[in-house]
Write a sequence for this structure.
């Protein structure tokens, strides 16, 4: 390797590896797709190995790319910590952040990684729970801020496999996504009567939306499992014992999205918002909330 690894190239590389799409990565780093492609050609020339390959599901890393990503993330973290320390930038302290399980799995890695780059001396503790429980935590000041779900009518729909709370938790919708039915591949819901469901807590949006849609359609159902544990619900679906409702973003790759038809009525969308526990949150909580508002639509 005759050339040095440039920080800008590594940062663009890390964002592409994270988003798996040039279009989303370009929005994140503020460059055109063609400029980003040129950057990656330069990086591949420096390491003299292919780093990406295109597939039907987007861009994936090659084996050399996976190895470089480990080094790139460590280099970027140390670089950003050094710059923040020497320039006196970035906030410090700690906050407690509430997040539903499905949001945590899909969005939290990107949100946390970028925020840590901007504020390397800050500590974010994460509490995972469904939206209704997070609203209770906010009222009790057990968390400083939380990402929550809102019903479609609160902002015309958003995201959450948790999927939220039966009332308007307050705040603007940052991102919107469609709720979908999921099941084990090859399992036909038309063969079940009543339809077995694995749903979140009884006051969450996915639970309420599923039951309301089935009742409007006159479709018989039974609750096979109602739990705040997303992993427990998915285990039941993987066993072919029930069907579930999540947002499209949160669908596990080994499970199938089921079309809305006579067997499964259409579902509404839900919205994601962020809410703080007070009108004047701490500077760190306010900064993390603003970071979510700016970053989440791009993920």
């Amino acid at each position: 390797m005759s050339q040095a690894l440039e920080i800008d190239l590594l940062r663009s590389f890390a964002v592409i590896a994270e988003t798996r799409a040039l279009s989303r990565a370009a929005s994140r780093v503020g460059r055109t797709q063609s400029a980003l492609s040129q950057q990656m050609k330069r990086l591949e020339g420096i390491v003299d190995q292919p780093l990406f390959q295109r597939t039907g599901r987007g861009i994936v890393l090659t084996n050399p790319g996976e190895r470089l990503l480990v080094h790139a993330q460590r280099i970027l973290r140390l670089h950003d910590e050094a710059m923040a320390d020497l320039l006196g930038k970035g906030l410090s302290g700690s906050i407690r952040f509430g997040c539903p399980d499905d949001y945590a799995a899909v969005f939290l890695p990107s949100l946390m990684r970028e925020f840590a780059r901007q504020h390397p001396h800050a500590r974010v503790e994460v509490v995972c729970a469904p939206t209704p429980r997070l609203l209770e935590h906010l009222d009790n000041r057990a968390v400083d801020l939380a990402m929550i779900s809102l019903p479609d009518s609160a902002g015309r729909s958003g995201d959450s496999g948790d999927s939220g709370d039966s009332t308007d938790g307050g705040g603007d919708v940052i991102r919107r996504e469609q709720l979908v039915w999921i099941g084990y591949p090859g399992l036909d819901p038309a063969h079940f009567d009543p339809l077995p469901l694995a749903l979140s807590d009884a006051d969450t949006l996915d639970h309420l939306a599923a039951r309301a849609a089935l009742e409007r359609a006159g479709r018989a159902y039974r609750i096979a499992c109602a739990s705040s544990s997303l992993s427990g619900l998915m285990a039941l679906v993987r066993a072919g014992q029930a069907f579930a409702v999540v947002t499209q973003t949160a669908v596990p790759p080994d499970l199938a999205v089921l079309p809305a038809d006579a067997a499964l009525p259409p579902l509404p969308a839900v919205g994601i918002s962020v809410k703080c526990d007070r009108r004047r949150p701490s500077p760190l909580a306010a900064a993390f909330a603003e970071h979510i508002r700016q970053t989440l639509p791009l993920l």
The two ends are 33 Å apart (CA to CA). The first strand starts at residue 52 and ends at 55.
